Every structure is written in structure tokens, then in C-alpha cells.
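Appendix B, example 12.
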Amino acid sequence: MAGVLSVLVFIAVFAAMFREVVAGHVAVLAGAAAFLLIGSLSGGYTPQMAVNSIYFETLALIFGMSAMSALIAKSGLFVHLAEGMAEHSLGNGWWVLVMMSLVTYAIALVTNNIATMVIILPITLNICRRVELNPVPLIIVEIVAANLGGASTMIGDFPNMIIASAGVLHFNDFISGMMVPCLVLLALTLVFFEYRLPKWRSKPKPIASRADDADHIFGHPTVDQNLLRKGLFIFGLALAGFVLAGTIDVRPGWIAFVAGLAALVFGGFKEDDIFQACGGHDILFFVGLFVMVGGLTAVGVLDWCVFAIDWLGGSSTVFRTLVFLWLVAGLTAFIGGSTSAALFAPVAASLVTATDPQTAWWALSLGILAGSSGALSGATSGSLAVSHYERFVKRHPELLKMIPAGQGLGHREYARWGMPIMALFLCFSTLYIVSALN
């Protein structure tokens, strides 16, 4: 009975989040409270077990990276970088897509997907309005590029932070294990969009006649050099710490935590901004999520997943890992990457072998990457992109003439692009995992 109730509560929480009934962190905290109530009544899940289920290193990584990213973003560097590259590609639809994909990927290497898309979306929509481009494919490729950037490093997205804590992995492990396949997948994504958009080009005006409009659109934002120096110095020290963490036997999460404290001290944030700068809502979300996943583990739900993987994959480590990869991708498309990482981390640990301690974790990360790119509900920044797009179109209805009827940014339109990308990612990831295990 406790297992059934736990699963129902878990489903109810994510249904409420999907329908945006309440904020995500409120929903999961309420769900965590329900899990603790069920556990106390059944005696199978105690408060101490709930505390033990929390990955505190992940929370430290979220805090530290959020604070450092907020400091660098406050300096204006990210917006300056994005707008400068976009301006140089202005007027050519394909180069707008390529340049914005690359800058999105670069920013996502060091900050979470939501923050990345907050920076990129206004620039993208203004470019499309200026050069009369359909913004939907561009936004979709940026969501995918943000997923790829986040999956490339230990600090790029929340799922990898969870995987780093659960698998006791270091920064260099992700560079060697994930960055190369993600760069290959980024190249394949651009080839895919070139194939799907053979006529997707703007008709630019001469450069001279675009100058005033470009100034109006981009504004040439200034960069606060003092804040930038502080931010880059703190981030540089943290990055050096991440690289040397394995050698000096210090976990990356605690390096990020100390660097985050320094960023808050030297960032000059107002009191009202500190909670947001240190990722307060994200930390609350993950505390509740970890407690719920701990409750599912306690009632044996994750054991069912392990049994299913063993039954489908048999005794072959390769087949079991591939079943796991595809299972994670399929569920991530519905429940999101962060939830999948927390939910399947214990399952990934069960697939780890003494001779190959890392491939199961890469299968988890690649499965999350594929699923989060396949559907808006799987992308961390999906709902943000839709709401920002809808608000912009309401303010600038002239953009609608660039968008074919029935092909606005919604779940169905995204799936037209996302599902083939998901299939492409899974095929490549399958080959990557097979080669790693052989």
C-alpha cells in the first residue's frame, strides 16, 4: 500500500508542475511532506532516511555555480557576448542559427539552462523580428544546444551535478567522458537543421542600412569591468580547483560552495537578490525531490526498475546498459532531466562494474540529454521558452507573418523537431556506449 501511495503522490506532484498549478519547488516540497507522512504511518521511511537521501554535494554545486554565474551575468559579459556574435551574423538566417547555437552552447557550459535561455531568448526574438525570420526553429535549436552544453561538463546542468555526487565523479571525468560526444551531437544537430531548413534564409538589407537598426536592437551593452574581473578571478580559481580536485582529494561541490560564498561577498548583490543569486528556489526544489526519490527507494519502486532492466537486458552488461539508456530517455521526455537524474542515479549505481565504473553514468547523462531534447516537457527551459515567446509575439504581432499557420512554439511543433533529434541522439549514444563497453 505504501508503494502505491508513494507512486500516486509522485505522479500527482509532477502533474501539478506540468499544469503549472503551483511553482515547482512548492509542489516537490509538498510531495516530500506527503512522503514523510506515508513513511511515518507505514514505518518504512523515517526522517533520518530522508536526510540521508539528500545529495548535499549537489546542493553545494547548485549554490556555488548559481552565485558565480549570477556575478558574471551581472557584469554584462554573457549578454555582450551573445549580442556581439548575433550582430556579426545579422542578415543571414543560417549564420544566425549557427552563431546563436554556438554561443548558447558556450554559455550553457558554465551556467544552467534556464539562466542560459533567459540571456539568449530576448536577443533571438529581436533578431528574428529585425531580419524577418521564423523564430521557432531557432529557439528549438537553442534549447537543444543548451542541453548539449549543460551535458558536456560537471557544472553545466543540474542532472550532471546530481550524477557527479551520486557517482563520486570529478570535473575531468565529465570532460573526458561527455564533452566529445556532446560536440559530435552538436555538429549532427546543425547538419540536421541544415537538412530540414534548406530555404530558411533571410533577405538582408545592405550593411550600411542596417547599422541604425542594429544599434536599436542590440544597444551595445557595456560590461562592468570591475565585476567581470572579480567574477572571472573567482571562477578561474574554482575551475582550477575542479581540475585538481581528484589530486588534492577534495570533492568539487565544496570547492563550488566556497567559490559561491566569495561571489556573494564580492558581487555587491542587494539583499532582495541574494536568494535568487544563490539558486534558492532550485535548492529547495532538489531537497524536496531527493526526499521523494528516497521514499520511492525505501518502498522498493526503484528495485522494480532494476528488475525490469535485468529482465530485458539479460546477463549482458552491454544490453542492460542500453536498455537503461533508452528507458531514461523515454521517461525524461515526460518528467524532465533533473527528476530523471535523481530517480535513476541509484539504478545507474547498480549497473556500475569494477572493471568499468563510469559508463553507466554516461548512459544516464546521455539518456537524459536525448529525452530532454525530444520534448518541451523534458527540457528544463521548455516552459520558459514558450512563455517568453508568447509574450513577445503579443507585443510584436508582426512576427506572426514569419511563422507558418499552426507551427508556433508548442508541444506539437517542438516534437516535430525534437523527436527526430532524440532518435538521432539515441542512435549515436548507443554506438558510444557499445564502444565504451567493448
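The two ends are 43 Å apart (CA to CA). Residues 204-217 have pLDDT under 50 and may be disordered.
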